[in-house]
Amino acid sequence: MEPDLFTAAAEARQEKEPSSSPLAVRMRPRTLDEVVGQQHLLKPGSPLRRLVGEASGPAGPSSVLLWGPPGTGKTTLAYVVSKATDARFVELSAITAGVKEVRAVIDGARRASGGYGKETVLFLDEIHRFSKAQQDSLLPAVENRWVTLIAATTENPYFSVISPLLSRSLLLTLEPLTDDDIRSLIRRALTDERGLKEAVTLPEETEDHLLRIAGGDARRALTALEAAAGAALDKGEAEIGLTTLEETVDRAAVKYDRDGDQHYDVASALIKSIRGSDVDAALHYLARMIEAGEDPRFIARRLMISASEDIGLADPTALQTAVAAAQAVAMIGFPEAALTLSHATIALALAPKSNAATTAIGAALEDVRKGLAGPVPAHLRDSHYKGATKLGHGQGYVYPHDLPEGIAAQQYAPDELKNREYYEPTRHGAEARYADAVEWTRKNLGRKRS
Fold first, then answer.
1. In this predicted model, what pLDDT tens digit does every residue of 178-233 receive, in sequence order?
2. Which of 51, 85, 172, 411 shows the greatest Cβ crowding within 10 Å of its Cβ?
3. Which fold has domain 5-173?
4. Domain ranges of the chain
5. How far is it between the farthest Cα atoms of the chain?
């Protein structure tokens, strides 16, 4: 029986002459030991090792879900598994394939298993784009081990993959590749026989910029390297200069050392531009940080601090926006995280400003550090334990909810601080209503200005 079309296409791609394939394909690891990064998944005895028969123990799973950012090696791991097990490797994308294509692959896998004794690895990219019905169509093949399914997703599988498939699969989380991982991959590609075979060299300055361009994406790094190498050779140059790389990828090098002073200088300029309500300058500094490969979580943390330090109650939603941005950034990573960071930066820069919350806690901390921290008034002390009444704890306490106005004119602060006022609200934005509220409550508490 003739192999199905999907098998033929996959095998043709695997047997393709290396020199005619993109660099990222030619440099695809052939064994797990050649895989860059993801060492937490490649330890001796790990599920992946068992899946390729490199470790003793129970048979490997019949379905694996790979969850991680783009360019971290999901396709590579699937390919290595197929090569190590001498299996047919069939690749589908959930963007273009449907139930019909999936069933064709499964039918082909059953024929290959029965007729040729050859197992099939089905790599399904972007499985989160499959509907529930489409994912359901995979279940019989997984349950009966007609295929070894390796599905990849950049989205949280607990939200994007149906429970029956998730429960039958081994979930492996891939981590973003570090600069050292990408650097190792680049240097291997420069010298390897499957790669550029030492046709060009890469100065440190150009390599650093290539790492920034890559942003933790191995495929992007190798694609840019290949394009820049071709441009250099076309010019008759044996070295890939920074200018050549910039011209090739149409991306100027950002003079930014993430481990040096500019890391803090640019971050400081971002926050001060937000504080000064200059949305355009804030976006400029944000762009510089993104282009320099700054950790998006670091940027998000700075925005959360700014929301309380410089905006506070002038716009109570600012902190909510910043926190939501930080959570989103942690889930999606770059490049999409740039949209979320822009959203938050614009909102914070254009929000009304108040540092009243900052100065309030600063003044309160200063008094405490000076020793102004007298005993808690007896009527405010805990009265729920045995013997508290004998000590006079809680006696005379007035429950505010029992009063018509909901406020009780009793002393709350220690004697040394009973008239101290820390919070001085502005009348900017929403804080105006807090200014009215604090004026009214202090008056009804019988507070005397200190």
1. 889 999 999 999 999 888 999 999 999 899 888 887 877 888 889 889 989 999 99
2. 51
3. Rossmann fold (3.40.50)
4. 5-173, 179-249, 261-350, 366-444
5. 96
